[in-house]
Specification:
GO molecular function: ribose-5-phosphate isomerase activity
Pfam family, one: LacAB_rpiB
Largest sheet: 5 strands, parallel
Family: Belongs to the LacAB/RpiB family.
Strand content: 15-25%
Distance between the termini: 31 Å
Shape: globular
Strand order of the largest sheet: 2-1-3-5-4
Number of strands: 5
Radius of gyration: 14 Å
Number of helices: 6
Bound molecules: D-ribose
Order of helices and strands: EHEHEHEHEHH
Protein name: RpiB/LacA/LacB family sugar-phosphate isomerase
Keywords: Isomerase
Structural class: alpha/beta
Length: about 140
């Protein structure tokens, strides 16, 4: 499975650490984020990740910024993206089971890296439940 990852300056360390963790687990990682801690604008990389997920260049995406909100707001402007912000393992699981999030967003400045790993594993290893949740996500795109 190919996973795109993006981050602003607030998420550089977690991006590198998570790329190593997931690469070791056998995932193919594609980096769309900045590799520098110099201040930059998260939309510049969020749109690149969104386009890669929408076009099928990558299967799923992961994004980091300080709070996670800027990334989530930008990613969710794309009609084919369901970016879910998660800050606990249970939310990581639910954002797949109920929302079928194709991008996982995490707040790099507010959770330890151990939590990032737990959230990411929960999201990757859980399955969308379909049923009433399919009906609900079908109603998300703007007409
Ligand atoms: C950068 O300082 C910060 O604003 C950004 O990482 C993010 O939290 C925005 O939503």
């Amino acid at each position: 499975m190919k996973i795109g990852i993006c981050n602003d300056h607030a998420g550089v360390d977690y991006k590198f650490d998570l790329v190593k963790y997931l690469t070791d687990k056998g995932y193919e990682m594609v980096n769309f984020g900045t590799d520098s801690k110099e201040s930059m604008d998260y939309p510049d990389v969020a749109h690149l990740l969104a386009e890669a997920v929408e076009s099928g260049k990558v299967d799923l995406g992961i994004a980091f910024c300080g709070t996670g909100n800027g990334m989530a707001m930008t990613l969710n402007k794309h009609q084919g993206i369901r970016a879910g912000l998660a800050w606990s393992e249970e939310i990581g699981e639910l954002v797949k089971q109920h929302n079928n999030a194709n991008v996982l967003v995490m707040p790099a400045r507010f959770i330890p890296f151990e939590e990032v790993v737990r959230i990411t594993d929960a999201w990757l290893e859980s399955s969308f439940e379909g049923g009433r949740h399919q009906r609900r996500i079908d109603k998300i795109p703007c007409k």
